[in-house]
Amino acid sequence: MLPPTHPLTDGRTAASPFVRAVRGERPAVTPVWFMRQAGRSLPEYRASRAGVDMLDACLTPELAAEITLQPIRRHGVDAAILFSDIVVPVLLAGVDVRIVPGRGPVLDAPIRTASDVLKLRPIDPDALAPIAEAVRLTVAELGSTPLIAFGGAPFTLASYLVEGGPSKDQLRARSLMYADPHAWAALLNWCADVTGAFLRTQVEAGASAAQLFDSWIGSLSRRDYQRRVAPHSRRAFDALRGLDVPKLHFGVGSGEVLDLLPGLGADAVGIDWRLPLDEASARLGGGVPLQGNIDPALLSAPWSVLQAHVEDVLDRGLAAPAHIANLGHGVPPETDPEVLTRIVELVHARL
Ligand SMILES: Cc1c2[nH]c(c1CCC(=O)O)Cc1[nH]c(c(CCC(=O)O)c1C)Cc1[nH]c(c(CCC(=O)O)c1C)Cc1[nH]c(c(C)c1CCC(=O)O)C2
Q1: Which of 63, 65, 106, 298 could join 165 via S-S bond, C-beta 3.0 to 4.6 A?
Q2: Which residues form a coiled coil (predicted)?
Q3: What is the helix, strand, coil percentage profile of the chain, to 5?
């Protein structure tokens, strides 16, 4: 149960277009936000981050709250997402991980064997205090705009841990799945538990929705996803048990496994740019709210081309019970932020 002072319970965010759409209602105006909206496309972000390491910024509550609020002030988007990273709970559980600019999360000592997995320790709930504080500071400023809690899905996290960094097709991670199925299952359970604790901390501190990011899901066969990954994603959502918070599940390249996602605990599903929303909705049986689908590659196209694309996405989104406009993946760092503001205005102007 969420406390009576939680933004969802006290009515601050429950009636927001974003929360209503995730729950499957169709508000008068389509809500819109952008994955990775807090980031390098914004000059104010670059100024806030000058000389501060990425993970240090995530663990400094005042700074994390300020960066979270920047895209709300600038673009007028319908939801905020906590400025943090999927590897933050991994770091807080004691794993030596850093973020290399232009590359992503890197581990000098990757987790590759059963004995490496056995050394992983559960996360100490006290270690998550800076995250809870960042959420409280953010929510105090947001008013009726909901904050989205997020976490990395177990397979995406495990891929970074096993590979030691970003990889093209997650070959080492997918090999471990077969070389040592027991170590694999233990590793994915550990990932589900750290991500679950991260999500639960954000929701209890005041977030009004939760999204699981399954960025590498597209490298898996349907069979492997179903048998060796999906149960662990369900376990991550299960960490939110008892909290009546709307949940989203987003995967990149998830077309082959799309129909499996709603069964894992999410209310709404995020779609990348590969599959049109009417086709995605048909694959899901027509009853699942959808998010996303604007191709990030078109952000640098002439406005008339981008506008036609956004309008097509909105039209096809009518096939689902509700649609939250968003990109099909994160904002590229070189994006002109004024283009994002213009998309928000376009989405909000369409009735
Ligand atoms: C795979 C993944 C990561 N992180 C994340 C994912 C899942 C979504 C996806 O597929 O993009 C999720 C994430 N990372 C970040 C957020 C913040 C909230 C938001 O969306 O605005 C979120 C939701 C901040 C960040 N996370 C990161 C940055 C950039 C850090 C910097 O400014 O140097 C930000 C703002 C770093 C990061 N962290 C990660 C990558 C690939 C990178 C980019 C590295 C680079 O190109 O420099 C891992």
Answers
A1: 106
A2: none
A3: 50, 10, 40
pLDDT of residue 351: 75
Report whether residue 40 contacts ligand 1, using a CB cutoff of 6 Å: yes
In terms of pTM, does the model score above 0.90? yes
- Tally the domains of the chain: 1
Residue 23: name the closest of 281, 328, 324 by CA. 324
ipTM computed for the complex? 0.92
Bridge pairing between strands 104-107 and 97-100: antiparallel
How far is Cα 261 from Cα 143, in angstroms, rounded to an integer?
31
Q: Is 72 in the pocket of ligand 1 (CB under 6 A)?
A: no
pLDDT digits (tens, 9 = 90+) for 15-58: 999 999 999 999 999 999 999 999 999 999 999 999 999 999 99
Over 90: is that where the pLDDT of 109 sits?
Answer: yes
Q: Is 12 a member of any domain?
A: no
Which tens digits make up the pLDDT trace of 297-347? 999 999 999 999 999 999 999 999 999 999 999 999 999 999 999 999 999
**Residue 250 domain-assigned?**
yes
Test site for ligand 1: of 66, 86, 135, most ligand atoms within 8 A of the Cβ: 86
Q: Is the CB of 70 within 6 Å of ligand 1? A: no
What CATH code is carried by the domain that includes residue 205? 3.20.20.210
